[in-house]
Amino acid sequence: MKPELTLHQRTLTLTRFPVRKNETLQAWDAADEYLINHCHAMALDPQRPILIINDNFGALSCWFANQAPVTTVTDSFITQQAITNNLNKNNLPTITIIDCLADLPVNPQLVLIKQPKNNRLLSWQLQQLCHLLPQDCVVITAGKVKDIHSSTLKLFEKYLGQTKTSLAVKKARLIFTAVNKSLAAPMPQPTSWTVPDHDLTITNYANVFSSDSLDIGGRFLLDFIPSKPQYKDIIDLGCGNGVIGIKAARLNPHANITCVDESFMAAASCRENAQLNLASTKNFNVMVANCLDDFNNQSADLVLCNPPFHQNNTITDHIAWQMFCDAQRVLRPQGELIIIGNRQLKYHEKLNRIFDKVDTVGHNDKFVVLRAIK
Q1: CA-to-CA separations, 33 to 40, 72, 171, in angstroms, rounded
Q2: 323 φψ region: left (φ > 0), alpha (ψ -120 to 50), beta (else)
Q3: Among 172, 138, 167, 143, which residue's Cα sits nearest to residue 155?
Q4: 191-217 pLDDT per residue, tens
Q5: Residue ranges per domain, the chain?
Q6: What's in the keyword line of the UniProt record (predicted)?
Q7: Phi and psi at residue 351, to the nearest 5°
Q8: Fold match between 4-183 and 191-373?
């Protein structure tokens, strides 16, 4: 049975994306409900845009879709698919869905923000809004009480304007911010640093994992990327800033490299890093996608992956499992999947279920590097 969100006598049927059999996680939270209930009696101009930022699976986008022109901003391809899916399920009008690097609509009347997990992204978005918003725009942010700290509120005060909070309801809280245009400042540039051991210069946009240094898992995996003349097609799955795919391209200049991530900011970072670190990007491609949904069966020789173990604030292994299954489908016979993971995650148990052979090619106190052969 699909979950339903019932508020003020309206019912929406909402599902998470990708849709999975026996799904037990609901597609909204108490912060969504609090925000919707607060805005229920608000008088809205049907001609003036509503801007929704970081809507996870479409609860906010669906609720406001037929009340005014809606633009939803998200860095997640999966979220875009979830919102579109839930709009269709509820027979709601089409809305505009854009990524975080796109231009925002002018003169919005209402901005609704779901607090992101990443404060770097939040700061970036608040600075972007300060440039855009008119003084009369209402800005409301919703989040979990445990995630709203005094340091969080200082970010709103610093980058957007005077801020106050609501009482807590169901462990959720609202943040109200008045736009102060005098705080507008030049947008920050992506962070950049070097990796001398591998002769790399890396640039990261705000929502890319480990924004000001190379994450320790990715750094460890760099030492185990193979170079073989038989590799024709190599995939960096969940590429982030692209450092793994770039190193693979250097070691295998004869191969086609495809980097895939569901984050638009990650894909943008990866493209810029390829330009910075490769003599030629002719055989280097970057895609935004849900794992390997758009790849043909038996179309790759090597898949490299540093899988995440969370979706938004939910700790889960279903993303890693989808990555492993997709890799098994996409690899040619005798193709290889090389992954890195925390030792306690026991990824070898999952890989042994779908691959013919799994062995350990590297390890330290924290990580293990596994190779699975189809």
Answers
A1: 10, 17, 11
A2: alpha
A3: 143
A4: 999 999 999 999 999 999 877 788 888
A5: 4-183, 191-373
A6: Cytoplasm, Methyltransferase, rRNA processing, S-adenosyl-L-methionine, Transferase
A7: -65, -35
A8: yes
User: What is the spatial distance between Cα 336 and Cα 350, in angstroms, rounded to a whole number?
Assistant: 15
Contact 318, 352 (CB under 8 A): no
Structure confidence at residue 57 (pLDDT):
86
- Could you tell me the fold of the domain covering 4-183? Rossmann fold (3.40.50)
Token pair 């462990």: residue: 171
- Architecture of domain 191-373 in CATH? 3-Layer(aba) Sandwich (3.40)
Q: Which of 355, 350, 342, 368 is nearest to 224 (CA)?
A: 368
pLDDT, tens only, 39-81 = 988 999 999 999 999 998 899 999 999 999 999 999 999 999 9
- More confidently predicted of 272 and 311: 272
Helices (H) and strands (E) in the chain, counts: 10, 20
Burial status of residue 373 (CB atoms within 10 A of its CB: 0-12, 13-18, 19 or more): middle
The whole-angstrom distance between residue 306's C-alpha and the CA centroid of its chain comes to: 15
Cα–Cα distance for residue pair 211/264, rounded to 1 Å = 15
